[in-house]
Amino acid sequence: MSSKGSSPYPPLIKSDGKGIKRPYSWPATPGSFIPGGALPLREIPLFKPTYDEFKDEIKYLTSEEIQKAGRKFGVIKIQTPLEWVPQDDESQKKLRASLESALPILVQHFVPHDKTQQSFSIERGMARQLTLQQYQAETLRKDNELEATLRKTPKFKNLVGVLKEREMDEKALEKETPEQKRRRESKVREKYFKTRVIQESTMYGADFSGSAMRTDLECWNFSSKDFPCLTKDLDEETIAQECGYVSMDGVKTLDGVKLPYLYIGSYGSTFACHTEDGDCYSANYLHDGDPKVWFGVPCYASEAFEAVARQLIPKGDDFPQCPAFLREKSTLIHPDLLLARGIPVFTTHQRPGDLVITFPYAYHWGFNSGHNLAEARNVTTKDWIPFGLAAKKCKCHPDPFPVEYVHEIAKKHDPKSARVFEIARDDNRPFPRPKLDVIPSEEYAAVEESEPKAGKLKSILKPEKRSSN
Ligand SMILES: O=C(O)CCC(=O)C(=O)O
Ligand SMILES: [Fe+2]
Ligand SMILES: [Zn+2]
C-alpha cells in the first residue's frame, strides 16, 4: 500500500523528503504506529543444516543460531538435508488410500473490511464433501475462470499468466537471478491480494488428522509418539480430571497439539493470521506441489500487530468482544498495511522439501499458490514454557490447550516460571510474557535475501495443467 493519498496516518516522509529515523524500540503503546515507519517486506532467513545438525530436533531448534533468528524474524525456513527422506512408496500408498473417500473441504469467503480491500474477514461456509479428484478438478476449473476474468479486465491484465512454479520450466527457475526471483514472487503475492475480490471464495483441504511421512522415519517424524516435545509425557487424564476438563465425549486431550495435520491446498486457499494454540512452535513441511506463501511477524511486535488488526475491523455489531479474537482464524491482512505502520513483516515462498518453523507467539498467515500438500505439527520446548503460560485465551470456544497443562509442564521443566505463574494467578494477574529484543530498523532493512531451492520429491498430487490460453 502506498503511504501517499488520504491515509489517516501521519506522513511517513518528512517535508524535506527524507525519511524520519525510526526509534530503536517498538511502540510502547501496542498498535501505535511508528512515525516515519514504512518498512520493506523482507525474506525470512533460509538455513541449510547438514543431516548431522538437523537430526536432533530439539538440539537444532534450540541452538543459538536458530533461536536468535526465531526471535528476530518469527518464522524461519530450513532446507531439509537430502539424507532426510520423509516418504517412500509405502507411505505414498497409505496416503493415497487415506485420501480416497470424500473429504470435508473447507469453503472460505473473503469479505473486505473496507474499500481499500487490504484486509479481510474470512468467513467459513458449509464444508463440502468431495473426493480429492473432485476437489482438484473443481479448483482447477475455478482457477481457469479466474484467469479468463483477468484477461477480460484491463486493470488486471498484468496479472494474467503469473505462472505457478510447477508450470515453469525447471531450468528457467534454476537460472533465475535473485532479482528475477524477487520480482516473480512479488507478482505472485500481488496477484493473490488483488484477486481476493474476484475469487471471493476458495476451497481448502485443511486440518486433516494424518501424516504423509514414513512410519520408520528416524527424525522430524511428525506423527511419531516419540517426537521430542514437552507434551509427550503429560499425564493428561489426571490433570484433566483434577481441573474438571471432562467433556461429553470423554476426557479432553491435547491431540490437536501433539499430532500432525495435513493440508491439501488449491490456488488462493488461505491460512488466516494466527499464533498456535498455547502459543507453541509449529513445524510445517511442504511435501509436494506449488509453493505455500508465508507472512510472519516476530513476537516482539505481536502486541502491536494485535492492536492494528483490531483497528482494521469494521466497528459494527460483529466487532469482536473476545480479547483473543485472532484465535478464531478469520482475519487476513495485506503485509503493506502493517509495514506502513512500522510492524515488521517477513515473507517466504516455501517449496517442496522446505520446513518452515514458526516461533512462540509469532503471528503468521499466508496462502497456497496452487495445488500442494503440506504437513504440520506443534512443537514445545523448554524456552516455550513462559509463552505458553502467558498465552491469551479465546473465551468463545473450548480451549484447545488449557493453561493448567502448561503449568503442569512448567512444574517439571521450569519450576521458576511455574512459581511466578502461581503467584500471578493467586493475585489475579496475567503471567508476564518474556521481554524480547527488538531489531533496530537499520538492521531490519539490511536483512539478506535467501536463495531459492529446487523441490526434490516425487509428485504425489498430480493436478492436470491449467489451460494456457
Ligand atoms: O498450511 C497451513 O494452512 C497452515 C500453516 C500454519 O499455520 C502452520 O503450519 O503453523
Ligand atoms: Fe500456524
Ligand atoms: Zn474468541
Describe the fold and architecture.
The protein is an alpha+beta fold. The protein has helices at residues 51-54, 57-61, 64-73, 89-98, 132-152, 170-175, 178-194, 236-243, 255-258, 302-312, 335-339, 385-390, 403-413, 415-426, 441-445, and strands at residues 42-43, 46-47, 75-79, 103-112, 119-124, 128-130, 201-209, 246-247, 250-251, 261-265, 270-274, 281-289, 292-296, 331-333, 346-350, 354-358, 364-368, 372-379. It has a single domain (42-445), classed as Jelly Rolls, CATH 2.60.120.650. Strands 2, 3, 4, 5, 6, 7, 10, 12, 14, 16 and 18 form an eleven-stranded mixed β-sheet that branches. A five-stranded mixed β-sheet has the order 1-15-13-17-11, covered by helices on one side. The model is unreliable at 1-36 and 449-469 (pLDDT under 50). Bound molecules: 2-oxoglutaric acid, fe (ii) ion (FE2) and zinc ion. This is JmjC domain-containing protein. Residues 44-87 form the JmjN domain. Residues 1-21, 447-469 are annotated as: Disordered. It comes from Ramazzottius varieornatus (Water bear).
Structural class: alpha+beta
Uncertain stretches of 5 or more adjacent residues? 1-36, 449-469
Strand content: 15-25%
CATH architectural grouping: Sandwich
Mean pLDDT: 83
What are the distinct ligands in this entry? Answer: 2-oxoglutaric acid, fe (ii) ion, zinc ion
The DSSP helix count reads 15
Considering the protein shown, what is the CATH homologous superfamily? Answer: Cupin
* Terminus-to-terminus distance: 31 Å
Remind me, CATH topology?
A: Jelly Rolls
The biggest sheet, with number of strands, parallel, antiparallel or mixed sense and barrel status, is: 11 strands, mixed
Number of domains: 1
How much helix, percentage-wise, in residues?
A: 25-40%
Shape label: globular
Structure summary, number of beta strands: 18
Rg on CA atoms, Å: 22 Å
Q: Report the CATH C-level class.
A: Mainly Beta
